[in-house]
Amino acid sequence: MVSRQENNTQRIAAMDEEAARLRLKPGMGIADARAMHPGIEVIAEDAEADRRLLEALADWCDRYTPLVALDGVEGLFLDVTGCVHLFGGEKAMLAGMLERFSEQGFRVRAGLASTPGAAWAAARFSATGTILQEGDERSFLENLPLAALRIEARTISGLESVGLRAIGMILTAPRAPLARRFGSLLLLRLDQALGEIEESISPRLPVAALSVERHLAEPIGLVEDIERLLLLLSGSLRRDLERRGEGARVFELLLFRVDGAVSRISVGSSLPLREAGPVGRLFHERLAALGTTLEPGYGFDLVRLSAFETARLDMPQADLAGAGSTQGEDIVLFADRVRARLGTASVLQPHLAQSHVPERASLLVLFDGGAGPRQPPTVHNPERPLRLFARPEPIEVPLTEVPEGPPRNFRWRRSVHRVARAEGPERISPEWWLTSVPDVEADETEMDKDEREAKREAAQKEAVAIETARMTRDYFRVEDSEGHRFWLYREGLYGRQEVVPRWYLQGVSA
Q1: Are residues 21 and 143 in the same domain?
Q2: Which end of the chain has the lower number of beta carbons within 10 A, N or C?
Q3: Is residue 382 part of a domain?
Q4: Does the pLDDT value for residue 395 go beyond 90?
Q5: What one-character-per-residue DSSP string does 147-170 give?
Q6: Final residue in a domain of this structure, among 270, 305, 340
Q7: pLDDT tens digit string along 278-317?
Q8: In DSSP terms, which residues pair with 480 in a beta bridge?
Q9: What is the number of other CB atoms lying within 10 angstroms of the CB of residue 243?
Q10: pTM of the predicted model, to two decimals?
């Protein structure tokens, strides 16, 4: 049996048939159970493991409907509206589902009804496999206990204390006194079970816009077989996308294993796609990246391809030679294949930033294939070096021609470079929005308010001037005696005792 901690007491949370034959019941204290049967085996509850198992079962139930929701910690809701005909009807579908669960080693109870509340009650308080026809909910619920309404134990105890022990008694009782004494949830659950108030099921996963699938008589396990079947599914999905005039940007491949495990493989595209070839190449790269982590087990007996994110796709006008305009598409498709194999962050693109400081003038962002905002074309400045360091490297400058001039020589990476030619300076001041303005307190002795404000403002201006002088850069393009060209700068201005200028190397030229 499985134990659970409740109010500092270990109680029975679940048990098998052998424990039931020993007249043990869920909720009984473990101490009392051991006193009756000292040899029983007790295992502590693992709520996280139970939830993972329930989510795995919910993934497997996707083969019946994409609308699967978790019902607490022990059940599932499946909205099979419009799906039962694919499995031979309600009775055949329910019987097949129970048989598959049994083959996997699970003992489950299931019920089918036109409302979630009635189906919940049928699964727990009736023979397993019960199917209620629409309109039979009232007659079915009349003889069931109050717990079949999914209400709290405190509410059930209150109703039983006034003699209301079955749902049929609540159906004939006045509604206003019930709502006033036991709350509105009681009547809400009753109306939901009867279908008088609609109750929706919120699926745990997003529902795909379009899906195509193939049930296999013989399971497959080889990657080559999966890719061949994927091309066939992509062709079927393409026809549906063509009718809608759309293409998909996010695809998901679901592989349902015979033993119940489900593998989800997703790929994304910068451009809307619907042709089978490009879709197949994206999944080829993704499957190659997964390698041995994709465990087929005894094989996959159901394969589903879904399109989650779709967008308008207008075919380009072909020229007289029959070729359409595909300028820029090849590099986008190549980048998508690289990202499918190596990950989303494997392909980056530069974007301009609003900064005069060279190392902050551009940044690398995730490649979007041109979907993001376009930047105005820029012309490379020939005065800038081709290679900039990610971070400026400090150099030693023992002597300069004049305080504001270029260095005569400098030491970088343990090598001394003698400057033969130099151009500059090119001054770059710091961004004003990054310059901090300190809060300076003025001496308040023998000063009126206006004098204090004037002195505080002057002190702040002086502090800003010092900060600006410290962050100002003078850039020089220099060439050493061996013909090597460098782009270096002095940070800080001479003439202020508070500022000590420092030299840095920003980049090198060819």
Answers
A1: no
A2: C
A3: no
A4: yes
A5: GGG---HHHHHHHHHTT--BHHHH
A6: 340
A7: 999 999 999 999 988 899 989 999 999 999 999 998 776 6
A8: 419
A9: 9
A10: 0.72
Of 159, 194, 229, the last residue of a domain is 194
13 lies in which domain range?
2-45
Whether 261 and 146 share a structural domain: no
State the pLDDT at residue 256. 95
CA distance 269 to 280: 12
Asked if 159 and 90 sit in the same domain, the reply is yes
For the beta carbon of residue 155, count every other beta carbon within 10 angstroms.
17
| pLDDT tens digit sequence for 89-133 | 999 999 999 999 998 888 899 999 999 999 999 999 998 889 999
How far apart are the C-alpha atoms of 313 and 377, rounded to whole Å? 27
Same domain, 229 and 309: yes
Which run of H or of E encompasses 301?
A: strand 300-312
Segment 183-187 long-range contacts (CB within 8 Å, at least 24 positions apart): 183/155, 185/151, 185/152, 185/155, 186/149, 186/151, 186/155, 186/159
* 349 part of a folded domain: no
Report the C-alpha gap between 277 and 275 in whole angstroms.
6
501, 494 contact by CB (below 8 A) = yes
Provide the CB-side half-sphere exposure for 473 (13 A, CA).
17
Residue 201 forms part of a structural domain: no
- Residue 289 to residues 82, 169, 284, 338, Cα–Cα distance (Å): 37, 62, 9, 10
Residues 504 and 409 in one domain: yes
d(CA 32, CA 21): 16
Q: Do 72 and 190 share a structural domain?
A: yes
Please provide the average confidence, as pLDDT, over all residues in the chain: 86
Q: Express each pLDDT in 248-257 by its tens digit.
A: 999 999 999 9
Total domains, the chain: 4
Lowest mean per-residue pLDDT among 13-17, 234-238, 424-428: 13-17
